[in-house]
Amino acid sequence: MKKLYALAVTALLMSCQWAQAQATLSYYLPKDVTYNKSIPTPQQVLGYEVGEWHVSHDQLVAYMRYMDQVSDRITIAEYGRSHENRPLYLLTITHPDNHKNIEQLKAQHKQLTDPANSGKLDIKSMPAVVWMGYSVHGNEPSGSNAALLAVYHLAAAQGPEIDKLLKETIVLIDPSINPDGLNRFASWVNTNRGKNLVTDPNSSEFSETWPRARTNHYWFDLNRDWLPLQHPESRGRLAKFHEWKPNLLTDHHEMGTNATFFFQPGIPSRNHPLSPENAFKLTQKIGNYHAKALDKIGSLYYTEESYDDFYYGKGSTYPDVNGAVGILFEQASSRGHAQESINGVLTFPFTIRNQFVTTLSSLEAANAMREELLAHQRDFYKQSLNESKKVATKAYIFGSEKDPARAYHLAEIIRQHQIEIYKPKETIKAGNTNYSPESAYIVPLEQPQYKLIEAMFEKRTTFKDSLFYDISAWTFPLAFDLEYTALSGKNYKLTQLGEKVTNPQLPTGKVTGGQSSYAYAFEWKDYYAPRVLNTLFNHGIQAKVATDTFSGNGKSFGYGTIVIPVAGQPVSGAELYKLLDEAAKANGIEVHAMQTGLSSAGIKLGSPMMLNLRKPTIALLTGDGVNSNDAGEAWHLLDNRFDIKTSLITTDNFNRINLSRYNVLVMADGNYNSLSKDKLRAWVQQGNTVIGMGDAIKWLAENGLSTISFKQAENEKATARKAYASLDSESGAQVIGGAIFETTLDLTHPLAYGYTDKQLPIFRSNTLFLEPSKNPYANPVMYTANPLMAGYISKQNLQQVKNSAAVAVTAIGSGKVIAMPDNPNFRAFWYGTNKLFLNSIFFGQIISSGSARADEE
Predict the structure, then answer these.
(1) Element holding 177 (H helix, E strand)
(2) Phi/psi at 78 (nearest 5 deg)?
(3) What separation, in Å, do the N-terminal and C-terminal C-alpha atoms of the chain show?
(4) Proportion of the chain above pLDDT 70, given as a percent
(5) CATH architecture of 618-711+727-851
(6) Contacts of 369 (CB under 8 A, 6+ apart)
(7) Do the bridges between strand 739-745 and strand 759-764 make them parallel or antiparallel, or are there none, so unpaired?
(8) Cβ pair 441, 411 in contact under 8 A
(9) C-alpha distances in angstroms, 826 versus 84, 137, 664?
(10) pLDDT classification of 728: cutoffs 50, 70, 90
(11) What pLDDT score was predicted for residue 719?
(12) What does the pLDDT average to over 181-194?
């Protein structure tokens, strides 16, 4: 009887939710609010009810632009374009009276972040600023679809309550943070939607194809890009964020279909120590408004049991270190229009309603707590500035005299975060490093953005908790492989500050020595040297690489120097000079005109140790089984940053295609069991290069394509019984979510060409530990005996990583297989290790087979 009753209740629940699949506007909107009938509903503009179909980005934009035209509460501004050239919009919604002097209100609000003036402000009369961001992950669409309702409600609702809200609040709505991903997902689920909705989880509607739509065009997770700012979507959004300095930011996401609804705070022990305790308390207080709103409509929810606020590169955490409060919402996802779950049929309208209801509860909380939020922002910046005056470190100085491009790119990011940065007035010696005005930058800590500066520069190795939702370290100067020093009061004075940097510029390159009739040379140490070489290859220019050092023109040239003979090229001497001159200027490198091949020291320009290079023709494996993030990071580096054409080859097509047109194959982290190992081996034997990363190297080793071996952890001794409840935390503590480690380079090895310092910080996020090769010439990159530089790692894993290999090379015939357990292109901001990956592409072909033969006892 109980079973029959339970089935009846489940059937009733499913039928109720099923009825909501074709919800009308009344399903979503508050019952006690009247709406202006002259303001069009989403259905009147789009031709369907919200939730009936997944809104495409162009439809979403069309509605937002139309609302801007018909409502005096709304203005809209484009803040950027996605990689696929889709516009990104921010809507400013407030009372018409506020719109009349919006720039004055904006300027006044920003003064809250200026401790010198914020005390003069009357916060009782100031509106709060609330930023609402929707669907940074394209296949988490309930947010962007809820944005339709949010904009309609704020434009059309009538009565004293909405008037008060709009007079006391400036609402900023970003309806689609990830246009490319949102459009990709809408196209998939709408294409696979039938007239009769199918709820079977096995249906293709719920199984989008690789790379899926979570990510942007290059398969990056934009919710990890708030700090690195490597994508146009993020750069445009952050400019608007700092233009307004919001008090509250909401970040609307989705999670697994069998979940319920989550709102922050997350797990208290996993907040970043630099975040103020008051931000957590305010988040808790705001949570009461969400609970009340969700109780009212009967939606299940939870809080403080998962997720965290540690990595500042996330949308809900970045605000916490900028005087605001960030709130993460996670809604169980229907991943389509209606899908069976353990809680009954989960419909798309149901997911949208929860996002809309918590949008309204956020606004209610912001209005009720307006003065608290404004005071929090004012006090945050005052306290930050006061703290900065008390710390021992007074400034950070960083740079790279031998490769100023990397320092420039870090300075560029720092400025986008509204941090003051300067050139040194004159050369500063700190430790063993000379920092010159031409290639170095100083970041004083005594400024309102002090805490964000510390978040970017600190090397933290101790933590309250051993579990992290994302990475545990992201020290920027280490990511860029830059020299940097924390300057104390003893070695820092304000008089050392030179020109204030407002708009960093990539150094301009040049050809030194004019046109040559013999040869040109440029060193590989410059970050964009590979782009110059690729440009030359695209023009059919022949190039050589120096596998030893030499001197000429009063200069020493290092390993990996590129030499371009004038004779035998498909262009005239004048055309070659013009090509090199343009490439040098555009890429910030110095090209040297060599008038003789008779070097003053070292090898000569016609030496057998000057090896011919062939143009890389690259295939990047994609498709099912491949980690799309890692593959996208490789594709973005090659295509977007270095202009290197890359063929994307799906794993299911690999066995059918002719590989002869490629000489480099990139295998990102992933599962490659569908590949023909015999076909791949035969291709490598012909003199080609495979670059494997992450789990790809396990497949290469298991299939006899690499001689690498993995370190095995020692078996733990039998222990006393442990509590079942501690299982997740103890196993989670063995995960390397992302930390930074020190390695040493063999600077004479082709894979290390262009590096000038033996120490190289590497980012690691897995537990693949390589045994060093028994071949003494085959260990180009090794972890040190004390490798941890920043981040969390368990004691057990730290023992494993010590003295392990960071790169391994295997020779097969005349070809090479290069194995990298770590990802050298992580999130596009690990500039320091990009060269390892690019060297594998350009110089894998010249690695001596004798240094890469199978290990022999």
Answers:
(1) none
(2) -80, 130
(3) 73
(4) 94
(5) 3-Layer(aba) Sandwich (3.40)
(6) 282, 285, 286
(7) antiparallel
(8) yes
(9) 22, 19, 20
(10) low
(11) 63
(12) 98
pLDDT computed for residue 6 by the predictor: 38
The least confident of 58-62, 633-637, 771-775 is 771-775
Q: 708-714: which pairs have CB atoms within 8 A and are 24 or more residues apart?
A: 708/770, 708/771, 708/773, 708/805, 708/808, 708/810, 708/819, 709/770, 709/771, 710/768, 710/769, 710/770, 710/771, 711/769, 711/770, 711/771, 711/800, 711/804, 713/796, 713/800
Question: For residue range 521-567, what is the model confidence (pLDDT) as tens digits?
Answer: 999 999 999 999 999 999 999 999 999 999 999 999 999 999 999 99
Segment 374-397, tens digit of pLDDT: 999 999 999 999 999 999 999 999
How many whole angstroms from its chain centre is CA 189?
Answer: 26
Active site residue 372: no
Q: What is the pLDDT of residues 766-787, one digit of tens each?
A: 999 999 998 888 899 999 999 9
- Cα separation, 788 vs 270, in Å, equals 21
Domain 2-384: which CATH number of 3.30.565.10, 1.10.8.60, 2.60.40.1120, 3.40.630.10: 3.40.630.10
**Tokens coding 58:** 């162009």
Which candidate, 425, 436, 433, 449, places its Cα nearest to that of 497? 425
* Amino acid at the residue 450: Y
SS (H, E, C) 384-441: HHHHHHHCCEEEEEEECCCCHHHHHHHHHHHHHCCCCCEEECCCEEECCEEECCCCEE
- Where do the structural domains in the chain lie, given as residue ranges? 2-384, 403-500, 510-613, 618-711+727-851
Collapse the DSSP code of 213 into the 3-class scheme (helix H, G, I; strand E, B; otherwise coil) and give the result. coil
Q: How many CB atoms lie within 10 A of CB 344?
A: 19
Cα 23 to chain center, whole Å?
37
Q: Answer yes or no: are the C-beta atoms of 804 and 766 closer than 8 Å.
A: no
Q: For residues 70 and 172, what is the distance between their CA atoms, to the nearest angstrom?
A: 18
Query: Catalytic pick from 140, 330, 372, 483?
Result: 330
Q: What is the pLDDT of residue 587?
A: 98
The span from the CA of 136 to the CA of 295, in Å, is 26
Which strands sit side by side in the sheet containing 325-332, from one edge to the other?
Answer: 74-81, 87-93, 169-174, 128-134, 248-255, 325-332, 261-263
- How many alpha carbons lie under 13 Å from residue 809 in its C-beta half-sphere? 35
Burial class (CB in 10 A: 0-12, 13-18, 19+), 565: buried
CA distance linking residue 525 with residue 508, whole number of Å: 16
Amino acid at 369: M
> Per CATH, the architecture of 510-613 is what?
2-Layer Sandwich (3.30)
Q: What HEC string does 489-527 produce?
A: CCCCCHHHEEEECCCCCCCCCEEECCCCCCEEEECCCCC
Q: Angle, to 10 degrees, between the axis of helix 232-244 and the axis of helix 404-416?
A: 40
Q: How confident is the model at residue 732 (pLDDT cuts 50, 70, 90)?
A: low
DSSP-assigned letters across all residues of 278-326: HHHHHHHHHHHHHHHHHHHHT---B-SSS--B--TTSTTTGGGGTTSEE
Whether the pLDDT of residue 727 is over 60: the answer is no
> Which residues have CB under 8 Å from 415's CB, separation 6+?
421, 501, 502, 503, 504
Torsion of CA 359, 360, 363, 365, to 10 degrees: -110
Does 211 sit behind a cis peptide bond, omega within 30 degrees of 0 on the bond before it? yes
660: how many CB neighbours lie within 10 A of its CB? 10
Q: What is the rounded CA–CA span in Å between residue 63 and residue 155?
A: 12
- Return d(Cα 299, Cα 779) in angstroms, integer: 57
**DSSP helix/strand/coil, 44:** helix
Residue 13 has pLDDT above 70, yes or no: no
Backbone φ and ψ for 214, nearest 5 degrees, come out as -60, -35
Phi, psi for residue 735 in degrees, rounded to 5: -80, 135
- Give pTM, 2 decimals: 0.94
Rounded to 5 degrees, what are φ and ψ at 373? -65, -40
Q: Residue 737: which pLDDT band, with cuts at 50, 70 and 90?
A: confident
